[in-house]
Design goal:
43% helix, 148 residues, two-stranded antiparallel ribbon, two-stranded antiparallel sheet
């Protein structure tokens, strides 16, 4: 596998994790939004990833084992999906969005889950940056050897 292939794969990971961080930040920013353009409270969103098919048959190991791994070339975003779990109901009769019984439907966003997702995406992003730096250093060493 060439350094360019490694950089391309890691670059796809950087792009995917950046989008994941953006979606998580949006969830945190809207954690108290009780009214949206669609009506009702904000619904938590999450990113769904799929392997990006490889051109040219590059094979990477997967949990399926060496024989069952499909050719892949990194990761791609398949979709951003809304969490369909019910909203949090909070009793607050003074809130402008309270129903007839005084309950307000708040978003189904859990800040602890969002912060955990943010940390996970950040670590994955850092791992991809490290991969790019290692590939760059290996390519530089190969060029240095070629000059001798």
């Amino acid at each position: 596998m060439s350094a360019l292939s490694v950089m391309r794969i890691a670059g796809s990971g950087l792009t995917a994790q950046r989008l994941r961080m953006d979606v998580t930040a949006s969830n945190i920013a809207n954690a108290e939004a009780t009214r949206t353009a669609d009506g009702g409270p904000y619904k938590r969103e999450s990113v769904v990833f799929t392997p990006r098919p490889a051109a040219g048959g590059l094979r990477l190991l997967s949990t399926a084992g060496a024989g069952g791994a499909a050719p892949t070339q990194g990761v791609q975003v398949q979709a951003i999906v809304q969490d369909q779990s019910p909203p949090r109901e909070v009793l607050d009769p003074s809130h402008p969005d309270a129903d007839a019984d005084g309950y307000v439907a708040f978003p189904n966003v859990d800040l602890v889950t969002e912060m955990t997702d943010m940390m996970s995406a950040s670590r994955a992003y850092e791992a991809n940056v490290t991969m790019i730096n290692v590939a760059k250093n290996m390519a530089q060493r190969a060029l240095d050897i070629g000059r001798l």
